[in-house]
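Propose amino acids for all 158 sites.
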């Protein structure tokens, strides 16, 4: 809310210590790694216990989940960059705010792609639809691992 002089009443953000900021800024990279490990491990487990059809379904679902995370991560990153002072990033390069139409199109495309892949698997019955849906939850597993890791680091540090 702006005052008559044009200033905002928002409180100044509390700065984080540099080591905490570095740790928290690495969460995206860690989640990519967690998704890779969980995806490969889940595909291998599906192959051993249920056969190649389940492994293929889980691998396709995992790949779409990772792609969905990547697109979401980029969208959130571009939105947060648009809130930086004077529209500049940490390298002092101008930041172009994301367009509403482009963002809406990417959101619809993301879910259309997942729906089309699920429909193709359902119609063809070539690979396991159940494993495909299980693979789509790869992102949730990576989030849970990241939460546990951050809790462990927070509780084990002095």
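Proposal:
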């Amino acid at each position: 809310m702006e005052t008559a002089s044009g200033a905002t009443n928002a409180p100044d953000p509390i700065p984080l210590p540099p080591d905490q900021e570095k740790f928290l800024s690495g969460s995206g990279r860690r989640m990519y790694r967690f998704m890779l490990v969980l995806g490969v491990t889940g595909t291998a487990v599906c192959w051993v216990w249920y056969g190649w059809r389940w492994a293929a379904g889980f691998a396709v679902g995992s790949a779409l989940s990772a792609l969905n995370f990547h697109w979401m991560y980029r969208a959130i990153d571009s939105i947060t960059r648009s809130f930086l002072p004077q529209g500049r990033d940490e390298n002092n390069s101008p930041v172009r705010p994301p367009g509403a139409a482009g963002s809406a199109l990417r959101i619809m495309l993301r879910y259309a792609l997942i729906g089309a892949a699920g429909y193709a698997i359902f119609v063809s019955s070539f690979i396991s639809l159940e494993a495909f849906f299980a693979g789509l939850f790869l992102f949730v597993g990576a989030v849970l691992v990241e939460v546990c890791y951050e809790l462990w680091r927070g509780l084990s540090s002095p």
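The chain has a mean pLDDT of 79. The chain has six helices and no strands.
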